[in-house]
Amino acid sequence: MATTSTIHTGPALKLPEKHYLNTGYGIRSWLLTTDHKRIALLYLLSVTFFFFIGGFFAMMIRLSLLTPDGRLLSPDTYNRMFTMHGVSMIFFFLIPSIPAILGNFFIPLMIGAKDLAFPKINLLSWYIYIVGGAFTLYSMMAGGLDTGWTFYTPLSTVYSNSAVAPAVVGIFITGFSSILTGLNFLVTIHTMRAPGMTWFRLPLFVWAHYATSVVMILGTPVVAITLGLAAMERVFGLGFFNPAMGGDPILFQHLFWFYSHPAVYIMILPAMGVISEIIPTFARKKLFGYHFVAAASLAIAVIGFLVWAHHMFLTGQSTYAALAFSFLTFLVAIPSAVKVFNWTATLFGGSISFDTPMLYAFGFLGLFLVGGLTGLFLGCLGVDMHVHDTYFVVAHFHYIMVGGAVMGYLGGLHFWWPKITGRMYPEWLARIAALVLFVGFNLTFFPQFVLGYLGMPRRYHVYPPEFQVYNVMSTAGASILALGYLLPMIYLTWAAFYGRVAGNNPWPATGLEWTTPSPPPTENFEVTPVVTWEAYDFHNRPELGLDVPSQPVGAHEHD
Amino acid sequence: MQSSLPFFPEQASSFAGNVDALFMFILLTCLFFAVLVSLLAIYAAFKYHRTSPGEVGSTAHGNMFLEVGWTAIPLILALGMFAWGAVVYVNFRTAPKDTLDIYVVGKQWMWKLEQPNGKREINELHIPVNRNIKLIMGSEDVIHNFYVPAFRAKMDVVPGRYNTLWFRPTKIGKYHFFCSQYCGTNHAVMGGWVTVMDPAEYAAWLSDESGNVNPVSAGEKLFTQLACVTCHLSNGTGRAPSLNGVYGAKVLLSDGSTVTADDAYIRESILQPKAKIVAGYQPVMPTFQGLVTEEQILNLTAYIKSLQSQPVPAKGAGIAPTSAGKK
Amino acid sequence: MTEHVVSPKIYVVILLALLLGTYLTVTAALHDFGLWNIVIALAIATTKATLVVLFFMHAKYSPKRTQLVVACAVFWLALLLFMTMSDYFTRVDYRGIRYPVSQNVFIHQPHRS
Amino acid sequence: MHRTGELYGQFETLEQQKDSATLGMWIFLVTEVLFFGGLFLTYTVNRHLYFTAFGVGGNMLDLKLGATNTVVLIASSFTMAMSVWSAQTDRKKLLPLFLILTFLLGGVFLGIKYVEYKQKFDHHLVPGHSFDLTYRINHPAPGDSPKELAAERQEIEDALKTEAAGTPQEQLTALNAHAQLFFSLYFGMTGLHALHMIIGAGLLIWVIRESFKGRFTASYNTPIEIVGLYWHFVDIVWIYLFALLYLINRHSV
User: What are the pLDDT digits (tens) for A476-494?
Assistant: First the structure.
């Protein structure tokens, strides 16, 4: 138990009588719910399912790469493994993970609303996700998918012998889940804020989701129509992207990356939002440069749309276009840097504890630094001509997506688990898991930077023997990483039922979501809250029961 | 690659030094920031560690000077990286004039390469050291990518169009090349070796024709087989211009413009004869799209090249008179 | 937020303007203005679309926020079109010639393996 | 969440509810713009690459039917706007009338679209194995005007000259491939548009039913307004489709 942070030490805490989890028990009460909190849990289950599918494929990939001659899997199987790893992880885990679970659960709570603006559409989003997921699962079972998650034409539309059409249709469908979620968030943040919750009192988690939603609604439709066209090409033999029929495969890449680059920001922005919540809470200090961090989220969302063709520097794209896109790519690095500096600055003068969420935040900071900075190499035209499509890229985006987004996701899950379930997870086990993850992650992916610079292309089933050392390191790390992912899965589930009762505000934190019981009632707040404080302000919140030095606090009430 | 834990691949082209220097510059800059931020975070974590359960942090929440500073400094550095990278890349995309041109055809899952004299190789490329090499690359099926790590250079090979990749090998040796754009089942084995040779050795290797059909004679045979010869009469009296001496010369087109009869023009004329009509001739030539393979085109080109030294007829050649100015 | 009721008179005027626009764009298309035909057709279409957005969809009378949403749509569509076309318009082929000069795309018959 | 009258439980006031719904619809329309945007980009790139072939394709569309449809859709947009006005000013008799008019005009549009599609099927202009640009001039129907056919033949012949291929047959194959891209996009774009029309018609049926029940008043007319926004958007898409598909290069006939 964390004595450093938790104020409640007495045994008096009890779960509230009535909360969103015990208002109904039947399967119908879950499948027909319009409660954003229950929908978030539905997402939690389904997203975790896809995470483990994707994780299984990842393990197969790493095991197969243990030896240079790829003895474990046939080339076709290997190609299916990495494709389906990418598809399940990107479209069905990373993109919905933080927004659809944590965002869904906490945006209404954080802004003092009873629900999202469109609860039925929220439920519809989940069903759309499930239908899309079912199509994709079907494709995995009916012949698999071996096009790479990028579906480059004409490989995917003409030459592949795998079940491309159902997978593409599945992703097309899932896109609408993402669009509707983004739409719901945008409207909710605009119109559902409680009295006193001005734009600049919003938690940065909400700002980050605002920016994420902008990307979702503007980018996703483009990839949807693109995959729609690719499916038509595959099924009806049309020629939009098939050079044999006059189409242009490069056009597909433009359309695809118009979404799929910003999609990276769909994954990382919410994680940044989580970190922006965790750091002030465990440093007990206002986040440094609130306005700059909020503006940086929007800047990333907007500039993120201007850089897509940096995935295409070596397709024979015009040199002028390459220069423009490289220039814009360097610009998008700046707001991310600003965020990192502000997080670090927040630590100074704080009162820092090392509870599990904070460990994840530190982990995120380190890994995101590496991931972000290696992006500079790839955005730089002169280096990209060497490292493009090598393991350097693989390492870079795993540092962003796994080191960044998944660390943020797990950090957020730990941070809010007491609010979601009303119970605490076992602190020491969680800290160990966080460390195991950090070590395992670095061991897995750092060697891949070296591999990439040495010139090992990605998506290789066999490779020259001189690359083996680093591949063995990577596989060893992956085993540790797998353990690191299993641990939280087990103890969080355990804690949801048997953990110590957490109380309304165990950390304590300043957000509105912590003023309501844990777990919250179905309608979130008994009375509509009125916000009178700035975000992350520990000094003017006597109800938190902290020892604020300059200001005498009347009574140490515990919530 | 002698050491068992290599960090850099060999440097074997004129790009390698530039790319590595740029890489080191970015690496050091990034390391500086990564170490700085990490040290600051670790320092703060210990210095400001919570000492009592109810303790709160300070009320500091921002500093305009810092914000501007840590926006501006990275911006300047980033622009520096961009500019340096741009210089390296523009050089990489702009092939010099005096190149040794090698045609490369990628297909699932092999590389076919053809030397200027028509000598063909599969998954092997022999080139002389210190010579500018230009690969003119096309694909027969999906997108591939020709990548030589030791040269720090790669370029996609896209069906439906040509991409070029140039480099100047600087070190004699044998280097891996890979397909680095995922292209289906055997993507991982679609690679081979680039052998950089001493120019004299290269010349010897090139002229050693054992096992290779002479492309010129193969092209000559095709020229008859495909009935090209029935129109392109060498004396200039046919329905199509004589091809004697046309290679490398300027050709006057029906729209008044001129074009240099290089490999690309010849290829286009075979595949899409109507694209550029020689002045004074009718667009009667059929396309040979789908009728000739990439290799046959190269053979035909080699044959046409061999006609360079043949006497040009006074009438009936497409070569632009030297007085023909720009349009 | 009080609702702005647009009078039917304005609707009728807009209807007439749209019909006039349709007549003009068809007439213009039947005359040869070279490349200007494209410009004329798109300019008239954009004018018509603007009228619909401003009056039929009440964007003119809506809060700034709605207008921002409309502006975003136009902006991002423009991004998609212009940034992609910037590649196509400045592309050079392997001979250093702007692409496409002619349709210099050689076509291989696809053969499934 | 429980509903109190027309107010859904998650909202505090009707105003907030209307505000949310309208904003939601506008944001959805932004998504739609980008959804069609992908098609518009595909169109633009291919029009850039195969300008002549696309011109030939465009001239095979029936300008009269296209223009009629434009007028029909504009008129339906007008009646839709009038429906919103009727709701806002509490004209409970006029409202269903205008809605039904809108619905009928939408039906006329789809009917005309059906006629056009059928023509294209008859002329073998549907992408696929039987696609043949010259089918109509080689198999004229009794009613076809010889002048029109001659013009069409002339145009195809002119276009063939610009296709860089060999024998007449091969040139035709190339022209067919490029024109087929045009018709793929024609059917893709107008088909997606028609799908939106059908969804819009479904929404109209719903509001017509509710309007007969007298549900919409000056203080509660959000659904009418929302459906209106959607309908106008579909109109705007058509305005552009008409210009891009039917009008460009039309003069060359």
Answer: 999 999 999 999 999 999 9
Residue A552 pLDDT:
45
Residues of A with Cβ-Cβ distance to C108 under 8 angstroms = 243-244
Three-state secondary structure readout of D95-140 = HHHHHHHHHHHHHHHHHHHHHHHHHHHHCCCCCCCCCCCCHHHHCC
Q: Do D184 and A115 touch (CB under 8 A)?
A: no
Q: Decide if B34 and A373 are in contact by the 8 Å CB cutoff.
A: yes
C-alpha distances out from residue A543 to A8, A350, A378, A515, A521, Å: 13, 20, 49, 10, 20
Q: Do B50 and A292 touch (CB under 8 A)?
A: no
Of D161, D164, D167, the CB nearest to B272: D164
- In 3D space, the residue among A213, A349, A365, A199 whose CA is nearest the CA of residue A278 turns out to be A365
Count of beta carbons in the 10 Å neighbourhood of residue A59: 17
Whole-number percent of chain A with pLDDT over 90: 88
Evaluate if residue D154 carries a pLDDT over 80. yes
pLDDT band at residue C93 under the 50/70/90 scheme? low
Residue B4's pLDDT band, with cuts at 50, 70 and 90, is low
Q: Which numeric CATH code is attached to A29-544?
A: 1.20.210.10
Q: Are the Cβ atoms of D164 and B283 closer than 8 angstroms?
A: no
Q: Which domain holds residue B103?
A: 9-43+64-212
Contact A355, B49 (CB under 8 A): no
Mean pLDDT for chain B overall: 86
pLDDT score, position B92: 94
Domain range list for chain D: 12-252
Q: Is C31 exposed, middle or buried (0-12, 13-18, 19+ CB in 10 A)?
A: exposed
CATH number at residue B228: 1.10.760.10
- Chain B residues touching C102 at Cβ < 8 A: 268, 272, 275-276
Q: Are residues B97 and B129 in the same domain?
A: yes
Domain D12-252: give its CATH code.
1.20.120.80
Percent of chain C clearing pLDDT 70 (strictly above) = 79
Instruction: Report the gap between the CA of D119 and the closest CA in chain A (Å).
Output: 20
- Given a cut of 80, is residue C72 above it in pLDDT? yes
Decide if C104 and B268 are in contact by the 8 Å CB cutoff.
Answer: yes
Q: How many domains does chain B have?
A: 2
Q: Encoding tokens for residue B247?
A: 């290679």
DSSP state of B229: G
Given a cut of 70, whether residue A2 has pLDDT beyond it is no
Which of A222, A245, A320 lies closest to C80 in CB terms?
A: A222
Joined together, the tokens standing for residue A497 give: 């039922």
A201-253 tens-digit pLDDT: 999 999 999 999 999 999 999 999 999 999 999 999 888 999 888 889 999 99
* β-pairing verdict for B192-197 and B124-128: parallel
Q: Are residues B197 and B260 in the same domain?
A: no
Please report which confidence band the pLDDT of residue B239 belongs to, taking 50, 70 and 90 as the band edges.
confident
Span A291-306, pLDDT tens digits: 999 999 999 999 999 9
Q: What CATH number corresponds to the domain at position B30?
A: 2.60.40.420
Please identify among residues 90-109 of chain C the ones whose CB lies closer than 8 Å to any CB of chain D. 100, 102-105, 107
Which of A72, A257, A334, A381 is the best residue to mutate to test the B interface, defined by the most B CB atoms within 10 Å of its own CB? A381
User: Contact A305/C79, CB-based, under 8 Å?
Assistant: yes
- Chains with ≥3 Cβ pairs under 8 A against B? A, C, D
What are the residues facing B195 on neighbouring strands?
Answer: B126, B174
Q: Could you say which residues from 251 to 280 on chain A have a Cβ atom under 8 Å away from some Cβ of chain C? A: 251, 254-255, 258
Q: Would the CB atoms of B187 and A460 count as touching at under 8 Å?
A: yes
The whole-angstrom distance between residue D70's C-alpha and the CA centroid of its chain comes to 9
Nearest to B286 among D161, D163, D166 (CB): D166
pLDDT band with cut points at 50, 70 and 90 for residue C94: low
Rounded to two decimals, the pTM is 0.87
Chain A to chain B, count of Cβ pairs less than 8 Å apart?
300
